[in-house]
Amino acid sequence: MSIATATRMESVDIDQENVHGNSTSRKRIFIPAIGSLGDVKPFLILAQELKNRGHIVWLGVHKRFEEKVKATGIDTVEIGGDMEISLSTTPDGIELQRSASVFKLGLAKRVLLPIIEEWFNGILAGVKDADFIVFPCSCVLVGLSCIEKYPNIKAIGIYTFPCVRTAEFTPPALGGQSESMFSWMNSLKWKMLEYGASSMYNDRINQLRASIDLAPIKLNYDQMIESIFHKPMKTATIYSKYLIPRPSDWSENDHLVGPILEEENHDFQPSIDIQMFLDKWENEKIIYVGLGSMMSIMFGRDDQLEFLKNIQQAIGNNNCKAIISLVGLQQANIDKLTSDENIFFLKEIIPHCWLFPNMSATIHHGGAGTTHTSLRYGLPTLVLPFGADQPFNGDRIFVNKLGPRPIPIRKTNVKNLTNAISDLMQNYSMYQANAKTIGESMRDEDGLGHCVRLIEAELMA
After folding, report:
1. What is the Cα–Cα distance from 28 to 30, expressed in whole angstroms?
2. Do residues 311 and 363 make contact, with C-beta atoms less than 8 angstroms apart?
3. Which of 116, 160, 114 is nearest to 134 (CA)?
4. What is the pTM of this model?
5. Which of 171, 301, 388, 396 could join 331 in a cystine, given CB atoms 3.0 to 4.6 angstroms apart?
6. In which order are the strands placed within the sheet that holds 343-346?
7. Which structural domain, as residue segments, surrounds residue 160?
8. 257-268: b or e for each residue (b if 16 or more CB lie within 10 Å)?
9. Cβ–Cβ contacts within 10 Å for residue 337, how many?
């Protein structure tokens, strides 16, 4: 473990020891929250709740999120391998994200294997003094491959989208439609996903295991869990059962508990400009457009500007009002956009839990957190997915009649955006009624409470 990591772990010992005293119920919990800010948020909320209950909790996050996490009172361990930075700043990363293909396995390995190595080492350092580890789906295989070094540790998987094999729908991580007519096809796709992960990472994982005197393994989810714990590992998928029902072929250890979302923020003070825009159009429908940090990763400067022009024209073609978030599009030259009193360009991060109650509909990338938040406030939604689980989430929106069919972000143009927004507005009453019904039901799911209870039950077992 590096000196820097050791110092951070010492900080965990001292700072939270002083806060909680010597409670015998206190346990030490490590959560490697790897990914984007949207990936970190639910685990930060979980960490805060666990800390409030007397546990010592620290998050493993990428360097750029450490300050934000520490500001909430949660300690951190830095985990390298920030995929967003690798994909947007390295030549191989830029090439991979602009033209990903199954035929570019060598390129993918050059980009991803160094990232996996940093995750392995970061999790290994972070878990050293823990009684318990929470695995997100992004790093569950990497985490399982290294925690064998500490045989007494307990664990749970908490997944932002379904990651447990089922014959009832396709793997969200593969993208695409969420349903297939044939259960055997769904099962085959889960096997393909597992085979792909094993082919990509198995050799490097075993090299890393050898460096810490662990025997080689086969990178297989079920086999690894049985080998380490000698029993099934409990999982909690923080996804709404109202978007997709819990699969009947999941075991009793696999729970679908509902999302973990930010609490409503009544104290947030918006800028005068955005408040004036909201006041001006308070009797009109306002659409929120936000595509998160992926926009600057997947699109170059010219492509970002082209998308902004296309979405602005599509909104204008439908005579709509909109707030377009420029967060994640910092490279785009907004001075080249046409001034429009019907559109507000948002340049600051505003909590969705404050903004969305003021919106009538949303257009976003389909991240699990944003998808659930938009539905929580009963907002009809159009998803423009980049990849990973986003096409799956967009398809669930469409299947449940909560918004139009999703459009892959790279296939958007003025025509199909205009048509999709027209659909959103013309069928607004139906979409809104369905979204409100789901939103009201989701509020009773209590994903956070379920996760805490599952963790504490495992700690007592």
Report:
1. 7
2. yes
3. 160
4. 0.88
5. 301
6. 343-346, 321-325, 286-290, 361-364, 381-383
7. 3-259+446-460
8. bbbbbbeeeeee
9. 16
